[in-house]
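Both lines are quoted verbatim for reference:

——
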Amino acid sequence: MYMLQVEGPRKLVLFKSHGIPEDVIDNTVQAAKSFFALPESSKMELDIHKTPNFKGYTALLGENTDSNGLGDLHEGFDIGWEPQATDQSSSSLGPAKVSAMEGANVWPSDLTGFKETTLEYYHRVLDVGKLLFPLFALALDLPENFFDDKTTKPAAIMRLLHYPPQSPTSFETDPDGRQIGIGAHTEYDPRLINLHCFTILWQDRAGGLQVQNTAGKWVDAVPIPGTLVVNLGDQFARWTNDVFKSTLHRVINRSGVERYSIPLFFGTNYDVLLEPIHTCVSPGSPSKYEIVTAGEYVKSRLEATYAHSQSAT
């Protein structure tokens, strides 16, 4: 495991020996490229607004992560937990239908192998995520197995993302940077982007991910081949009463080529109450957040994120 420290407490964690074969990653990236190359009409058949649980396709400018922005310059495809066709024992391990966020994925009908390839990578990254919870428990002075019964049906949303190249001179016509790949946000931003405990991100070599240091300067998180980036999310911020916080970050694709990335947002069971963990509350640090279930919270934040594009449909 490698640690990229931007400045002071602001960090991104880079995993080198994550155990996911390169061919599994390569096949998933190729599947993403094939999907995004489809005609817009075919992709819009899977429009995310057509589903009650925010699964499917998000068109270019369909999100607006920064409330001061003009829409995000990327398109995406979202899936949630689903057993692999070859896994006959896992049908009982996914989320039970107890939340408005849970439900079936939608898949393109004209891309042979797309579903199988995407789910293969999804489950591989899910296994990586399960290895992280004991580490977080120990960091919070909790038993190593503290999160085990809260992640039996993990709410993990994965996104295939495609960023068209953004002109290096775009800031000449948009000096405030109001239209970029993904607008500036933290992982506990009230508009998204990571509403879960943490993100596990694969990114290609195009770069574009930037984090803001404590001096307010944007610093490139340069891609390192063979690594996955881990960043904390707002479920942990609420759950730990802000003991865990995340870093302001954004994406600007000035590489001159198309950029692809695959984040998986790893969360708890949707029915888990996000009440402050006892080791994170004290007389000097009382509870800061309203107690809600993870599913209720995720759904409310996603509704806020997609509100501007929903009103345009």
Summary: Residues 3-10, 89-93, 170-181, 183-194 have pLDDT under 50 and may be disordered. Residues 114-139 form the longest helix (26 residues).
